[in-house]
Amino acid sequence: MILVQIVAPRNDVRCQLPNRTLDNAHQNDEKICIMSASSHALPELKAALRREATARRDAMPAAERQQAAESIAARPFPIAIPPGAIVSGFMPLKSEINPLPLLRKLAEAGATLALPVVAGKGKPLIMRAWGFGTPLASGVWGIREPMPDAPAVDPDILIVPLLAFDRRGYRLGYGAGYYDMTLTALRAKKPIVAVGIGYAAQEVDTVPITPRDARLDLVLTEKETIDFRST
After folding, report:
1. C-alpha distances in angstroms, 117 versus 37, 46, 138, 212?
2. Predicted TM-score of the model (pTM)
3. Rounded distance, CA 46 to CA 193, Å?
């Protein structure tokens, strides 16, 4: 597990990263660095966490990753799926957990599915209707996405990818902020539920955050369902 700790409420960021340091640090088993947020410490810290989290996820055997996806789908989904509910998912990229077993289960329970489309830098994602067997186009980074003529929808439940998460409900993504913008925009329209999905090994002590970072409502891993709605 990456251990990251934000300890200063004002201008300092203290981080703890096993076996690495971003600046001069105490010579302990856990390298500790104190940096000024005004010197862009937070973006550097997030970038380091992304590298660590990606490497840890990539190191998981493919069979273990697939078993994790199937274990999540096999458990009862923690949210009722009312008639007509729209659930957005995503197509997995590289070693991301595969949400398709869960999406198939939710579709069988009556959910209408959707997938994200990148509308452009600095813009929320467009969620377009999709179903199993429907042709997909190749989008940004080669991610499969619905065809341009698929109708745009506003999901009620979003299955959200992540690189890391903490017990406060914050996630670390890839840095473009697409899901943060999307969750914020949708929450301004109607009640939604944001469900992160990932491996238990992606949990960290603390995800460093900025005011734009949107909090998840739940996280599903192969080991447990973590509900942040009452915290």
Report:
1. 33, 24, 10, 20
2. 0.83
3. 25
